[in-house]
Design a protein that fits this description.
This protein has 175 residues and is of the alpha+beta class. It folds into 2 domains: 33 residues; 134 residues, Immunoglobulin-like (Sandwich), CATH 2.60.40. Helix content is 22%, strand content 36%. The longest helix is centred in the first third of the chain and has 28 residues. The relative contact order is 0.21. The mean pLDDT is 88.
């Protein structure tokens, strides 16, 4: 009797069990990856309110400035850039969620930018406006998030809001 015939049952078991083991292992990792990544958007039109992550979110104002404007010069906006400020009204259900903001182009090159709150600009939100989600707030408040983007940025922008506990869902607010 040949070696192949003596080990046929074991070879068939390896041929079936090895791919099955790899599939289960990688499936668990893949599902975990997508569950921790913003991959299920809720699109919100400008001026509409959306419930997400334990709070109501609404974009109330969008402002832009060029480096040649008086405002652009006063904050030290670099040449060939544009300042984009988004004002949000946040109404927590109980306490405000922690969150992360990004600005994305919906068309064109589809670039993404993080907030400019740690940039060397001489700019800070005015009055009682916050620059971040304050998890200790239980009352409605306003957040002003601002970005420095290239001057050739598309006019079709969206603000994305991610709350860690609500991933993979996230808000995609059109501006």
């Amino acid at each position: 009797m040949s070696w192949f015939r003596r080990n046929l049952v074991a070879l068939v078991a390896v041929a079936v069990l090895l791919p099955a083991t790899l599939a289960v292992t990688f499936w668990n990792d893949w599902v975990g990856y997508w569950d921790q990544r913003a991959s299920v958007p809720t699109v919100v039109e400008l001026g509409a309110e959306a419930q997400y992550g334990g709070a109501a979110w609404e974009v109330t104002d969008v402002r832009t400035a060029e480096p040649s404007s008086e405002f652009g010069r006063s904050i030290g906006l670099p040449a060939d850039t544009r300042f984009v400020s988004v004002l949000l009204e946040v109404t927590p259900e109980q306490s405000s969620p922690g969150c992360q903001f990004t600005l994305r182009e919906e068309s064109g090159r589809q670039r993404t930018w993080n907030t400019a709150d740690l940039s060397p600009l001489d700019y800070y939100p005015q009055g009682d406006d916050s620059a971040f989600c304050d998890s200790e707030r239980t009352d409605p408040y306003r957040i002003e998030v601002y970005f420095v983007v290239p001057v050739d940025v598309s006019e079709e922008l969206v603000l994305t809001i991610e709350v860690g506990e609500s991933l993979p869902s996230y808000l995609r607010m059109r501006l």
